[in-house]
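Posted in: Structural Biology > Protein-Ligand Complexes

Title: Requesting predicted complex, manganese (II) ion in pocket

I'd be grateful if someone could produce the 3D structure tokens for the following input. Sequence and ligand are given below.
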Amino acid sequence: ESIVPGELHDPAMRAASAVPEPGAVTIVVPTFNESANIRELLRRITESVPPRLPCEVVFVDDSTDDTPDVIRDAARDCPYPVTVLHRESPVGGLGGAVVEGIRAATSDWIVVMDGDLQHPPSLVPELVAAGERAPAGLVVASRYIEGGSREGLAGGYRVAVSRGATWLTKTLFPRRLRGISDPMSGFFAIRRSAVTADVLKPLGYKILLEMAVRARPRQVTEVPFVFQDRFAGESKSSAQEGIRFLRHLAGLRTASPAARMVVFGLIGATGFLPNLAALWALTTAGTHYLPAEIIANQFGVAWNFLLIEHLCFRDRRQHRHWWDRAGRFALLANADLVLRIPLIALLVGRFGMDALTATALALVTTFVLRFAGTEALVYLP
Ligand code: GDD
Ligand code: MN
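-- Reply #1 --
Done. Output follows.
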């Protein structure tokens, strides 16, 4: 991707802030067509951040309108250095933009906030102060602790979706999100030494979640805030963003081999549904049950393949064509079936095991082999 750094309001000040000062803060603001909010945002930041707190503002912009020009223009009236990184070919959406901003930040503290004033700039100094006090690596501005609320989340529908998403996320990552009541918040402060941007694989809106799960900052603290109404314009979120969020969750949840194996097994267990359905259809249509078994098994395999592709190995599909992956996957799945019976026979005949133990052992063995085979032969080069 190409990044065009914008002009700095005051290069001398920017140079001065290039050495991280304790307590200095870089405010990172992702923007997508927010021209009507920029002036007010910079005005309110100026009003809120005391002059003694060294501050710079980095906009990471994916706009298709004149937002970058508006930022450069408004920067002239701002006492802090203001940078615009305009991304010509945006990757990762909002989260990708935030990570670019974190990479560009030069201060000890980075505060990430939206550009539409739903996050009150008056809270910026408080977030940093809370982090210094704790001391913490991550300070989350939360709508869900005492003193916080989500006034700006208009409509029962959005509130319900937000609640459901928060619940699902907290359930999927109970350990990593301990102490974070609002993992969906887009307003937070991080100590630069607490995150390595290289471990992040941002995908869409939930960059705090990405950070908490993958970068795992050690000490976390929270500050309540009231989610405001948008100042101007409309939310850039969409149903597509919702799908992206589910993909993001799946990617995070299957990041470790152990977690992938569990998901792999759960998906495998659901394969009996299409398998039985196909068997029923085929035998009802008069097919002999033996060929019907074999054909029905392929329905289970296809179902498993689709789910596994999307829920287990989504970001590891680049090495082969989809038909190559499907073929290898089907081969492994059928080999599993063919291998199991002789293996059980061997365990019973040679090692004197009872049939039940032998079957259980064979099931576990072929499952582990199939998982390892899928990892190594389908999703690795
Ligand atoms: N650079 C960039 N690229 N910025 C983006 C993009 C993008 O693809 N999409 C959105 N933004 C910017 C917007 O311009 C705005 O400044 C900020 O990100 C938030 O976008 P909104 O569209 O206003 O988000 P929202 O209000 O629906 O959601 C916010 O609140 C949620 C909590 O309810 C975000 O902060 C979410 O992360 C948060 O979960
Ligand atoms: Mn918003």
